[in-house]
Design goal:
The chain is built from five helices and no strands. By secondary structure, the protein is mainly alpha-helical. It has a domain of 38 residues. Helix 2 packs across helix 3.
């Protein structure tokens, strides 16, 4: 243990300790420059109108010949169209026992309270 006053001891230890460099601030990294996004050609208004026309044709053909379903006709005739099949799968009103004759027999099988 070193001898001397407390200030001398602290000074001795401080001088013996290695002097560490101050932490330097690293330059901030700029985010990588990304190219501008390409416009999606499926989201143009002209493509939406084209899809609606194709859907109308497919639904009209489905009304004439019920064996040719509208979504199958769109998929077969315009395989690259991504909008028309999505619109054809859109939401519809739920089926109830009053609107579906096949479910009426199932509804009669359950006892009513």
């Amino acid at each position: 243990m070193p001898r001397g006053t407390r200030a001398e001891v602290v000074l001795t230890y401080a001088m013996a300790a290695p002097i560490l460099p101050l932490p330097t601030q690293q330059p901030s990294r700029r985010p990588a420059q990304r190219p501008p996004p390409r416009p999606d050609l499926d989201t143009t208004p002209a493509n939406f109108m084209r899809a609606m026309a194709r859907i109308a044709v497919a639904l009209g053909l489905n009304a004439i010949d019920a064996t040719d379903l509208a979504h199958e006709h769109v998929r077969r005739t315009w395989p690259t169209d991504r909008v028309a099949p999505l619109v054809l799968r859109a939401a519809m009103t739920p089926t109830t026992t009053t609107t579906a004759a096949a479910l009426a027999l199932v509804a009669q099988a359950f006892p009513r309270p």
